[in-house]
Amino acid sequence: MSDLEPQCQASASRDCPPAAGAPVLERISARASVIGKDFTIRRALPSRQRRMVGAWCFLDQAGPVTYGAGQGLRVGPHPHIGLQTFTWMIDGEIMHRDSLGYEQVIRPGQVNLMTAGRGIVHAEDAVTDDPGRLHAAQLWIALPDAERHREPSFHHYPELPVLEWGGFTVTVLAGTAFGQTAPAMIFSPLVGVDLACAEPAETLVPLNPAFEHAVLVLSGALEVEGETLEPGTLLYLGTARAQLALQSQAAARLLLIGGEPFAEEILLWWNFVARNRDEMVAATADWNAGRTFGTVSGSPSPPLVAPDLAGLPIKSPR
Ligand code: MN
Fold first, then answer.
1. Does some domain include residue 317?
2. pTM score of the predicted model
3. Which of these, 30, 52, 51, 57, lies nearest to 217 by C-alpha position?
């Protein structure tokens, strides 16, 4: 997906409070944003209070929504650099097309992972014009400096580790959790887990104390370490936790993300993760001039135009 806000704000990790270094409970409101045509999503990362959780630097929840004929997702071709896009599909279907020639429908329970590296273009559209439903989480993972210029690649993961734990169905999306390792190709120590319960449940989730973590309720309501949490609020948990107490009174779904605090300063603007303003200016010029990035075939949606560079700070991080 793509940042389509008219006032595209840069997000510099140096502006962000560092990882807490201790367990905390910090509530962060997701804000409504628009992607594609009239498609409202909730953006939990980056926010003013928190830019990253480990290498996770972007988190959108799309839906759950029911849409009419011809009203499905339409995010036309747009570029990315320096990051991986990570799509976790909960309900509905999306067609991914990219400049490497991949054309892949993603369905519930599956992950699409696109490694932008030095540059790639993709489009994400509803598969048909029929009415439908959509519920998905899209995340971005910042690539460490040693990997951010790598050749772009795309992976579809149709099957992920799934296990039962304390009344929850646990899907390991990325990294290792509950003794299971997800297949996603990652370049930093991080973890992503989906926990869903169909009825009241209570459990302790084991965590890596070296990681910082955050949770986002995707549906229903949960008590997390005694904090009542509903969709629309990211709960940042800090580091140094060996476990997390979860309790639900009814069906609910939770996304848990975590990772080793990201040691490098990054700059996030529009669909790019880079290190300084010059890199952003160059990538924007290349995209707007039709250079470097390649093209996507088959998307019914028009390509996106990069927003005005005025949203970029003049002073850039080192
Ligand atoms: Mn995208």
1. no
2. 0.95
3. 30
